[in-house]
Amino acid sequence: MSTQHPPDRPFPLFPLLGAGGLILVSLLSVAWVRWFDVPASHQASVVETVRSKSLFFVDMPSGEVDVLDAESNELIAVLPVGEHGFIRSTLRGLARARKARGVGAETPFTLEQRKTGQLLLIDPVTGQAIDLWAFGIVNAGSFADFLNDERVEVTEPSGGMTDTLSMNSNPTTQTVEASTPYE
After folding, report:
1. What pTM was estimated for this model as a whole?
2. Which residue numbers in the chain have pLDDT < 50?
3. d(CA 103, CA 47)
4. Which of 5, 62, 144, 162 is most solvent-facing, going by the fewest CB within 10 Å?
């Protein structure tokens, strides 16, 4: 039984030196940034908020959820039992994060509409911000209603129809139309 050995060819020197140099440059770059506290080159741009409202969401003994304006303590909407699953599940997730930090519901949530049309639900206690448009027009619209100045009747959206959501802001108006055949 004989085994054949490959011819004695040394590993190519240039790829080996190139890989070693790349590793060295990477390590030195990371060390430089950490030692000299170089700021990130791509800071998140600050986008102007055009409308904002601080809201309390209060669980009632009947199972309804009251939505209150935190500044005026005015009732904005009542979410009936068994409806508005997106609003309830979003708030449940934020409340769970607060509970994990040992904080209750004494601080209101902030609902903001940005100049770009972005709609955010922000928890100032935990620092979490949820981009509501990421969940679709119907779900974002369920929160957008709370930015209106008058009390709103909140109804469960029906599938299979075209829903129009008008987001009126001070300088501009943004109207978005989308077909929502599914929830």
Report:
1. 0.58
2. 42-43, 151-183
3. 29
4. 5
